[in-house]
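Handoff note, outgoing to incoming analyst
You'll be picking up this chain. Sequence as last confirmed:
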Amino acid sequence: MRIIIKFAIIACVLFTACVNGQNSEGFKPTTEKNSDNWKYEPSISDEFDDAELDTAKWYNINPTWIGRAPSLFRASNVTVEDGMLVLTGKREDVADAPEGYHTFTSAAVQGKRKVLYGYFEIKCKPMDSALSSAFWLYTPDSVKQEEIDIFEICGRNDVDKEYEHTYFATTHYIIHKKDLKISDHVAHKTDYKLANRFIVAGLKWTREEIIWYLDGKEIRRRKNDFWHSPETINFDSEAFPSWWGLPSEKDNGGRFEIEYFRYWSQIKESDISYKN
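Most recent structure output, in case you need it:
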């Protein structure tokens, strides 16, 4: 039933676009309704309406990382259900897990195509757990790491309830051989518990600046000093023992539900929209 409703909504949007003389590629980001210089990219976007994850677009694991200890990424924790991508975190031990990984399993999904600049948007319901819900971009190599965290959310914290209302929007830039690390974040506060509802999270990334949005409202803006390499698109759930702490004994994990992911490239001759 949920999938039927989603198809009806999508059809309505496409019909409206056609009436206005536009096709699906004219669909505009939530915060860019009056702009004509954005191109919707269906080959990268996903409504998650198939019975399974589209493996032409996504890995159901992080290919280069097994998770933040003690939580272990498992492909079996990634499913598509009722028109949504679901990343599950669980309190469980895995036989023969690598050293340091125990007590919890979690999930990661990574895009197979890197992107450079654009507008990124998901509609999601964060996990009601101290296992995180995160939406982020990064490119790691032996020389440097560029990372833009669209959000990191602690949906439940039985010690400090402030975390349940905090939307972390972060950037990292690391040059390994020079031991240089630049990290900053904005801790945006909401008047509701983030895991209690669906939210729409957006990021505008251009050559000049990076802007974060929550439910269509700007919550952070910064100059783009360093983030000029193609990056992977990631959704995941991690344990953060040294940040907000491990889940309490009453916290057995949960579900990070993503209704859609949509990506627009900027129509601008001087920009490269994406690379293989």
